[in-house]
TrEMBL record, chain A:
GO molecular function: 2 iron, 2 sulfur cluster binding; electron transfer activity; flavin adenine dinucleotide binding; metal ion binding; oxidoreductase activity
Cofactor(s) demanded: [2Fe-2S] cluster; FAD
Function: Responsible for channeling the electrons from the oxidation of dihydroorotate from the FMN redox center in the PyrD type B subunit to the ultimate electron acceptor NAD(+).
Pathway where it operates: Pyrimidine metabolism; UMP biosynthesis via de novo pathway; orotate from (S)-dihydroorotate (NAD(+) route): step 1/1
Naturally occurring in which organism (per UniProt): Lientehia hominis
Pfam families reported for this sequence: DHODB_Fe-S_bind
Any single biological process term in GO: 'de novo' UMP biosynthetic process
Binding residues annotated for FAD, in chain numbering: 52-55, 67-69, 74-75
Tagged with keyword Metal-binding: yes
Self-association state and partner proteins as the record states: Heterotetramer of 2 PyrK and 2 PyrD type B subunits.
Name of protein: Dihydroorotate dehydrogenase B (NAD(+)), electron transfer subunit
Keywords assigned by UniProt, alphabetized: 2Fe-2S, Electron transport, FAD, Flavoprotein, Iron, Iron-sulfur, Metal-binding, Pyrimidine biosynthesis, Transport
Gene for this chain: pyrK
PROSITE patterns in alphabetical order: FAD_FR (PS51384)
Family of the protein in this entry: Belongs to the PyrK family.
From TrEMBL, chain B:
PANTHER family for this protein: DIHYDROOROTATE DEHYDROGENASE (FUMARATE), DIHYDROOROTATE DEHYDROGENASE (QUINONE), MITOCHONDRIAL-RELATED
Organism lineage: Bacteria, Bacillati, Bacillota, Clostridia, Lachnospirales
Protein name from the UniProt record: Dihydroorotate dehydrogenase
EC class of the enzyme, as a word: oxidoreductase
Pathway info: Pyrimidine metabolism; UMP biosynthesis via de novo pathway; orotate from (S)-dihydroorotate (NAD(+) route): step 1/1
Positions annotated to bind FMN: 20, 44-45, 98, 125, 163, 189, 215, 241-242, 263-264
UniProt-listed SUPFAM superfamilies: FMN-linked oxidoreductases
Catalytic activity: (S)-dihydroorotate + NAD(+) = orotate + NADH + H(+); (S)-dihydroorotate + A = orotate + AH2
Family of the protein in this entry: Belongs to the dihydroorotate dehydrogenase family. Type 1 subfamily.
Domain of life: Bacteria
Amino acid sequence: MAKRKESARVLSQESLAPGIYSMWIETDMAEEAGPGQFLSLYSKDGSRLLPRPISICEISKGRIRLVYRIAGKGTEEFSAYKAGDSIPVLGPLGNGFPLEAAENRRAFLIGGGIGVPPMLELAKKLPGEKKLIMGYRDSHIFLKEEFEQAGPLYVATEDGSFGTAGNVLDAIREHGLSADVLYACGPAPMLRALKDYASERGIEAWISLEERMACGVGACLACICRSKEVDSHSQVHNKRICKDGPVFRAEEVEL
Amino acid sequence: MNLSVDLAGVTLKNPVMTASGTFGSGQEYSEFVDLSRLGAVVTKGVANVPWPGNPVPRIAETYGGMINAIGLQNPGIDVFIKRDIPFLRQYDTRIIVNVCGKTTEDYVEVVERLADEPVDMLEINISCPNVKEGGIAFGQDTKAAEAITRAVKEKAAQPVIMKLSPNVTDIGEMAKAVEAGGADVISLINTITGMKIDIHKRTFAVANKTGGLSGPAVKPVAVRMVYQAAQAVKVPVIGMGGILCAEDALEFILAGASAVSVGTANFHNPYASVEVADGICAYMERYGIEDIRELIGAVR
């Protein structure tokens, strides 16, 4: 599985919610990529040098779907791309969610905010009993139909406009859900709460982290997170999110 | 056509190397480029003991460049010798180890540990703007720079490159100071101290508040400083600062650089280093240049 930079072709672009876009691109990275991995997209404006890491939302034959939030001028540029445009892409990057951790076990797949999209490909790939718990800010709920096809979906909204009022843990409590393993991606406070929740109940937890990145391949040491033990590569309490992650066992990292 | 250059008796197959800190020890980028196609790999700075580096966020993009404050995170010389040198030895390229430290003793300890190792040159980082002690403390004062050069040279088994900071009043004076201390080669520029404010969060964009600016935004400053340094000293100069492509590299060479380093460009294009080498070759063919040495310092 070779990482590479190539020019991919945009197949479609649509807005799913305010500031949230979905873009399908044509790339044979689809044959190698897995859930939880990410691609780095490059701006065509020479004033913006660094790639933007975007999680993989869906993979199908020869195509990858990226669902992303406009966070600045780079992602704004991507959102203006239309079918037929080209986009420079580096990937597939990082270590994804381990599917084998859910073998013969009941799984929670938990996404929060822009951490929701990577859970979709995982939901499609993960065999066995799974519950999908997605947290949103308000009634702009994206990817709902896709998740419903992959398994039972429980939605929480911060403003209470849909599903459980509150966060993903509130949804778990309201519906009396339980699991043996959980996979999650979302904002740091959510991951922190899930790490505690999992550790109190002896649930194996796999979480996907994010940090500002430069190289995306483990060379520059920009996107580190704190590790519980001394890391064998860094020799200090640092792990590289882009290369050693972005998915980690929750107890491996300090949040 | 000859692309090889000589740096203090060390022959590089071509003048293109990687800039310290942007390329790790080559392993990650070896998935994209054949390291044997490079004149040299310059490793990320290594100290006598592991350093944890700075808190995140460590980087921020800026117009035509980026600010970084990694803080010289490194695994320490023991693991570096065991793991990184054997990795690089698999390739037909020169190995240049960048050395960092907080005190003169730290630098000397690393240099001594490397004396019996199969590395070709040492690059001494006296110019990192992102650590409080060491680094820049030696790089902004001519007497301190000369003294640390002398201390390192006394113990070094390999030729010594002194890497200079652009954050000085007179780069020519700094170049002369390290030459007087016995530097075999000079490299420049390290990053330019900068700052970015996040106006939405109303905070500094990198946790260290200040960081080092790199990328094409700094290139004209770097070319000017390489020219001035090359005019000031007799030892060879390695030029870097914002090189994205062969045309950029050629500016440095024409300004007086015997070799060039590709740094931030690796993040923009993981194939950049080899593409720069290929592009220099194409330029020489186009203008019928037989020997790269005809170009070094050709613009006076």
